[in-house]
Write a structure and sequence with these properties.
The complex is a heterodimer of chains A (279) and B (790). With 279 residues, chain A is an alpha+beta fold. Chain A has three domains: 7-53, Uridine Diphospho-n-acetylenolpyruvylglucosamine Reductase, domain 2 (2-Layer Sandwich); 63-174, Uridine Diphospho-n-acetylenolpyruvylglucosamine Reductase, domain 3 (2-Layer Sandwich); 181-273, CO dehydrogenase flavoprotein, C-terminal domain (Enolase-like, domain 1). Chain A is built from ten helices and 14 strands. Among the domains of chain B are: 3-28 and 476-621, Aldehyde oxidase/xanthine dehydrogenase, molybdopterin binding domain (Aldehyde Oxidoreductase, domain 4, 2-Layer Sandwich), CATH 3.30.365.10; 365-402 and 412-462 and 625-784, Aldehyde oxidase/xanthine dehydrogenase, molybdopterin binding domain (Aldehyde Oxidoreductase, domain 4, 2-Layer Sandwich), CATH 3.30.365.10. A seven-stranded mixed beta sheet of chain B has the order 3-7-1-15-12-13-14. In chain B, strands 9-19-18-17-10-33 form a six-stranded mixed beta sheet. A four-stranded mixed beta sheet of chain B has the order 22-30-31-32, sandwiched between helices. The chains are: A alpha+beta (279), B alpha+beta (790).
Chain lengths: 279, 790
């Protein structure tokens, strides 16, 4: 369980990283916290002739805020988010999510950007950023940036919209209003395990936002707009009644037992909303 | 001896472990910590298919001396585990695959390089062509007519078939209550914190092959390895350094061990193989997979009248050395009646060859499966007669008044009060208050309490092993005790400490009989060059066997100390006593160093009749009755079952155990905690599934779930201390017990919780998938009934 030989470069800047990515034409991988990539390299399930370490690259630990968003550099760790070193514009949701990722040792090294770019469907940030309606900032060669909605960033398991020369550099998280409520629930057999099913809900009436996501699926997280609309209209019973049908509709390939489990996760996320008012 | 003679450090003292300081400071020395000049690393190319003929194999030109196939290993013999048990079929276990591979992960080629990564690179340069055969992936498939044969010369896929029949007719005819259960436990791997590891080199000065290996049984490995390499045993030295857990896996002579030793023997330079976690999951340490079909008969009170059982164990492709592939099934058949009074019993057992890694006895050896099955039978009978399961259990247990008791399969239970332990557990878990309360908690989870009782045959010796016909039969364990010139005590035993604290408990025993302070007792274990023979640490035998031997040798040395001290103090030996770490006669006293100095350096002070054997002795020991000492316990657990996720939370867990005289209660508790944690793994988490082609589906710890601290309850332990009549100090073994009952207690608790839904889980682990499937099945049954009514 030792990796095949690879070259290693510590990139000092994002542009150095993107230039190398472009030059290697797909035979290079970005290394951030290394908490998912290195085990896969050790198992030789992932191979790459070059690892580009961006842990120390300038600009990836930026933090820019205005009245509507906080732009979080991709290099912040889960632990830093958990500890509040990064401003949380989501009324506690991000800190709550960070605290539930794997183990502290993993959180100390793993980064929010690395987790999103790795694109494990069961990873917490994948669903969390989708439900928050966050925007991911991707930078390619020549400093060319484009902004991609977090909902839709995943094209499948371990597959994203990132182009071969692009690095995820920041996540723009919209601010929730003071009245916003959220709920988050994941089904795990043991602490620190990737979720088997995940539900996330945000209701921010002041901003006219009500979004529900079912995650830890076989692919991208799915929005549940019908259930969300009923919830936004304060028709809770209708929302819960229709939930099972909507889960089946958005996850048609899943076994019935898996569909039920995902519905349970969402139902519990909705139920958790009332108790997560103050974080 | 009184507590003052040992300063409160002898047998029974709750003293901290001597070995903990180095481990807590990270200064333990495991095989993986060893470094030698010029040492090369070994990696294995392992079979990617479960069952195939090898059509061809080739390695790049110039890789001789770096890549080895079976035929390159001149002079090695396959691992052949013979047994004298009638009907047993021998399997050749080639140390590298020869013409056939029989499981995914079987070593096919060995690669050597300056480091492990480079050795793994070499494995990728090898070309092997396989002609695949159908894979046998379950014991049912192995027994089916027309099944593909793993070992064609056998004519079937059965290593062994056994049966026992006391006669059942009357029991069956008279029984008003009959329950029928199909029960299974999943395949597991053992997961000591430290995996297997081997470093071998040639010692030119000693003219010996020296093998550092992570083993529980250094003296046995010496014998087995010498046989496979065709060497005289005097040319082989086995050193087991710190061992990070064994659990049975490290009792085996492994092919990897043989071939790495062969490299050192052949090239006379050091070689190392350190098993990684993936190798452990895919190729090693398979255990636990049992399947039971049981019919049990009872009266209307729930009193057992008879039992008819069939046990099949999926034992993988080869017989392991030295335990064979058959120990598990044979033990399952013999131990199924457990702690119960049973008068009619019939059982057939099958050890079925499958295309999976060889099966090894794992902590509890068959008993976790046996207990899981038997305790579900008791609960099913209780349900059938409409009584509380603990009551039916208590009435069927062998009562204390019947001790010693020989059961229907001729197990001799030496002492104890089984129902008393159960009643204590029932009180501690608070059953009565629980029954008066709600069946669901505020979160809608179903609540239940389950019980399990068992006996743990420990330190079973000559009589038992001789009956199993294994390649070795344990007899007397030997120990060496010596007073040094400066008055300290050296204790040497061929057993090994694998985490169970023998450096401490053997020192406590030596302290008890010699009075030498614990801090100046040095225990040396695990090196065939420096310790007397022991078959090793397995079967919960260490403290009984090695402890007994240390006591014997210590008593001999103590008498000689007294004789010299009496002469120096001018009294008779019977006037000499040990107290507070010194030697007394009346108010006069000597230090142990005074006696040591006299023997070694001032012989003119010695009495004329001094024993010329000096202040050292090697003595052997086995219990007066060597069929095993039976520890026992009852576990009780309260769980919450989430009907929507299938997740089970353990809310409370109590253990009432009796292992006879406790040499160190803290160590007994540590053993119990550790075993129970593994039992929770069996109950709820651990599972090595295979697909229809024999591919293992859990090859990393992402897929193979081990319980972590968060998933484990705070186990509450109460002790009973019924001495064994047959052993030194009344000690019994306790190493395995903790692991035996949790699967049974937890499944019974789950089924108690799910009773309002009429759902029953019969298989381990009770994963969310199985729990949800059971609930779903109950719903379908209910719907079908409702439909029939309408």
């Amino acid at each position: 369980m030792k990796p095949a030989a690879f070259d290693y470069v510590r990139a000092r800047s994002v542009s150095e990283a993107t230039d190398l990515l472009a030059k290697k034409e797909g035979d290079a991988k970005i290394l951030a916290g290394g908490q998912s990539l290195t085990p896969m390299l050790n198992l030789r399930l992932a191979r790459s002739s070059l690892l580009i370490d961006i842990k120390r690259a300038e600009g990836l630990r930026s933090l820019e805020a205005d009245g509507s968003i906080v732009a979080i550099g991709a290099g912040w760790t889960h632990a830093e988010i958990e500890d509040g070193a990064v401003e949380d514009p989501t009324r506690g949701l991000m800190r709550h999510v960070a605290r539930g990722i794997a183990y502290r040792a993993v959180r100390n090294r793993g980064t929010i950007g690395g987790s999103l770019a790795h694109a494990d469907p069961a990873a917490d940030w994948v669903s969390t950023m989708a439900v928050l309606g966050a925007t991911l900032v991707c930078e390619g060669t020549g400093g060319k940036r484009r902004r991609v909605a977090a909902d839709g960033f995943l094209q499948g398991a371990f597959l994203t919209q990132l182009a071969a020369d692009e690095v995820l550099v920041a996540i723009e998280v919209p601010r929730l209003s003071a009245q916003a409520r959220w709920g988050y629930y994941k089904v795990c057999r043991k602490a620190g395990e990737f979720a088997h099913a995940l539900g996330a809900v945000i209701h921010d009436p002041a901003k006219n936002i009500c979004r529900i996501v079912v995650g830890a699926t076989d692919g991208p997280p799915k929005l549940l707009p019908r259930t969300a609309a009923a919830l936004a209209a304060d028709r809770m019973a209708e929302a819960l009644d229709g939930l099972d049908r909507e889960i089946v509709a958005v996850l048609p390939e899943h076994e019935p037992a898996a569909q039920r489990l995902h519905a349970t996760a969402v139902r519990r996320a909705i139920a958790a909303m009332s108790t997560t008012m103050d974080h | 001896m009184s507590a003052s003679s040992t300063n409160g450090e002898g047998v029974g003292a709750r003293v901290p472990r001597k070995e903990d300081a180095r481990h807590l400071h990270g200064r333990g020395q495991f095989v993986g910590d060893l470094a030698m000049p010029g040492m090369q690393d070994v990696a294995f190319l392992r079979s990617p298919v479960a069952h195939a003929s090898i059509v061809s194999r080739s390695k790049p030109a110039g890789s001789d001396g770096a890549i080895f196939f079976h035929d390159d290993l001149t002079g090695t013999l396959p691992i052949i585990t013979r047994s004298s048990i009638p009907g047993y079929k021998v399997s050749d276990y080639p140390v590298l695959a020869r013409e056939r591979v029989r499981f995914v992960g079987e070593p096919v080629a060995m690669c050597v390089a300056a480091n492990r990564a480079a050795a793994e690179d070499l494995t990728e340069t090898i070309d092997v062509q396989y002609d695949e055969l159908p894979a046998i992936v379950s014991s049912d498939a192995g027994r089916a007519a027309g099944a593909t044969l793993l070992h064609p010369q056998w004519g079937d896929n059965l290593f062994l078939e056994t049966s026992f029949d006391s006669g059942l007719d009357q029991a069956v005819a008279d029984a008003p209550v009959k329950v029928e259960l199909d029960i299974s436990t999943a395949r597991q791997t053992m997961h000591p914190l430290e995996g297997k590891g081997v470093v071998a080199h040639w010692d030119h000065r000693a003219g010996q092959l020296v093998v550092h290996t992570s083993t529980q049984v250094p003296h046995l490995i010496r014998a087995g390895l010498a046989e496979c390499l065709g060497l005289p045993q005097a040319l082989v030295r086995i050193i087991a350094p710190d061992v990070g857990g064994g659990f049975g896996y490290k009792c085996l002579l492994q092919p990897e061990e043989v071939v790495v030793a062969w490299l050192a023997l052949t090239y006379k330079t050091p070689f190392r193989w350190i098993e990684d976690r993936r190798e452990h999951l895919v190729a090693g340490a398979n255990a636990r997979q049992h399947q039971y079909r049981i019919k049990a008969y009872a009266d209307r009170q729930g009193r057992l009248l008879g039992m008819d059982a069939e046990v099949a164990v999926d034992v993988g492709a080869y017989s392991v050395w030295p335990f064979t592939a058959c120990l598990e099934a044979a033990q399952a058949g013999g131990n199924l009646p457990g702690p119960y009074h049973l008068t009619a019993y019939r059982v057939k057992t099958y050890s079925v060859a499958t295309n999976k890694p060889p099966f090894a006895p794992y902590r509890g050896v068959a008993r976790p499966g046996v207990c899981f099955a038997m305790e579900q039978v008791i609960d099913a009978i209780a349900k059938a007669v409409g009584r509380e399961a603990w009551e039916v259990r208590a009435e069927n247990l062998v009562p204390g008044s019947a001790m010693p008791y020989t059961n229907i399969t001729n197990k001799h239970y030496d002492s104890g009060d089984y129902p008393a332990a159960l009643l204590s557990a029932k009180e501690m878990i608070g059953l009565d208050a629980f029954r008066a309360g709600a069946r669901r908690d505020a979160r809608g989870r179903y609540l239940g309490i389950g019980f399990a009782s068992y006996t743990e045959q420990s330190a079973h010796g000559t009589k038992v092993f001789a009956a199993w016909g294994l390649p070795f039969v344990p007899g007397y364990d030997q120990a060496f005790v010596k007073l040094t010139p400066d008055g300290a005590l050296e204790v040497r035993s061929g057993i090994h400490t694998i985490g169970q604290g023998l450096e401490t408990t053997l020192a406590q025993v030596a302290c008890e009989v010699t009075g030498v302070p614990l801090s100046t007792i040095k225990v040396t274990l695990g090196d065939t060059a420096t310790t007397p023979f022991s078959t090793g640490a397995y079967a919960s035998r260490g403290i009984v066997m090695a402890g007994g031997a240390v006591a014997r040798a210590g008593e001999v040395v103590a008498e000689r100390i007294k004789a010299i001290a009496a002469h120096l103090l001018q009294v008779t030996p019977d006037a000499v006593t040990f107290r507070d770490g010194r030697i007394y006669a009346g108010n006069a006293s000597l230090s142990y160093a005074d006696v040591g100095r006299a023997w070694y350096f001032r012989p003119e002070q010695l009495p004329d009749n001094v024993d010329r054997a000096g202040l050292e002795a090697t003595e052997g020991y086995k219990p007066e009755v060597d069929s095993g000492l039976f520890s026992y316990a009852s576990h009780a657990v309260r769980v919450a079952v989430d009907p929507d996720t299938g997740l089970v939370e353990i809310l409370d867990y109590v253990i009432v155990e009796d292992c006879g005289r406790m040499v160190n209660p803290m160590i007994v508790e540590g053993q119990t905690y550790g075993g129970a944690a593994q039992g929770v793994g069996t109950a709820l988490f651990e599972e090595s599934p295979y697909d229809a082609n024999g591919q293992p589906l859990a090859s990393t710890l992402i897929d193979y779930l081990l319980p972590g601290p968060v998933e484990l309850p705070k186990f509450r332990i109460a002790h009973r201390e019924t001495l064994s009549p047959y052993t030194k100090f009344g000690i019994k073994g306790v190493g395995e017990g903790g692991a035996i009952a949790p699967p049974a207690a937890i499944i019974n608790a789950i089924n108690d919780a799910l009773a309002p839904l009429n759902a029953e889980v019969r298989d381990a682990p009770a994963s969310p998938k199985r729990v949800l499937a059971a609930i779903e099945a109950a719903r379908s049954r209910a719907d079908a009934l409702a439909g029939a009514d309408a």
